[in-house]
Specification:
The protein is an alpha/beta fold. The chain folds into two domains: about 140 residues, HAD superfamily/HAD-like (Rossmann fold), CATH 3.40.50.1000; about 60 residues. Helix content is about 40%, strand content about 10%. The protein has nine helices and six strands. α8 links the parallel β4 and β5. α4 runs parallel beside α6. The longest helix is centred in the N-terminal third of the chain and has 17 residues. It is globular, with a radius of gyration of 17 Å.
Length: about 210
């Protein structure tokens, strides 16, 4: 693939931060407590904002308040390890003049917890868009279209890095080139939803942008 990309758009959890296992345990517990009738709720909600999760799955406002408090405390105490190779890759994109953005369904409160433990994160990217910056959650393409607009790059000249089913569908619907990370779902599950599958960013040590699947 000879196309030169001008911008890279990254999801956060499962793409930049290796946190999906922790969230799986948290939302698995919430699902068993509040929605035992939906045993795979933790899997279904991946890539969605908290507001969207509540609207679809837990509509009682008292329950929402309790869960929000529990989630805020959980995220304040979480570890935020990086996906292998992402720091070096993000720094190389900046050196080579490729614009970059984080596009996450997380809200400001969650990101403040991230910044406390990973204060260097902001310096790796040109901008960080959170759930407050768009009105439609993934799998809607709105968030990636908005990120491309903020960076001043046509979406067809962007590459999206995603791990969740909702996120991959969002990237595909936007018209961007989509790279799926097999950090949350098996490779065989995400291959139909993206142009390229990688395990982490170590495989891009000598590439600015990934090559398309053969």
């Amino acid at each position: 693939m000879n196309k030169k990309f001008e911008a890279a758009l990254f999801d956060l959890d499962g793409v930049i931060l290796d946190t999906e296992g922790q969230y799986g345990k948290f939302w698995g517990s919430i699902g068993r407590e509040y929605r035992p009738d939906v045993p795979d709720m933790a899997q279904r909600i991946k890539g969605q904002t908290l507001r969207q999760i509540f609207d679809a799955w837990i509509t009682d406002t008292d329950d929402q308040e309790v869960i929000t408090q529990r989630l805020d405390q959980f995220e304040a105490d979480m570890d935020y390890p990086y996906i292998k190779g992402i720091q070096a890759y993000a720094q190389r994109l900046r050196r080579e003049g490729v614009k970059s953005a984080i596009v996450t369904s997380s809200n400001h409160a969650k990101m403040e917890s991230v910044y406390r433990k990973r204060p260097e994160l902001k310096a790796y990217f040109d901008c960080i868009l959170t759930s407050e910056d768009f009105t439609e959650s993934k799998p809607s393409p709105q968030c990636y279209l908005r990120a491309a607009e903020v960076l001043g790059v046509p979406i067809e000249n962007c590459v999206v890095f995603e791990d969740s089913i909702n996120g991959l569908r969002s990237g595909r619907a936007s018209g961007a080139y989509v790279v799926g990370l097999a950090t949350t779902n098996p490779r065989e599950v995400i291959i139909p939803l993206c142009d390229k599958v990688i395990d982490d960013f170590a495989c891009l040590a000598t590439q600015t942008m990934p090559e398309e699947n053969p």
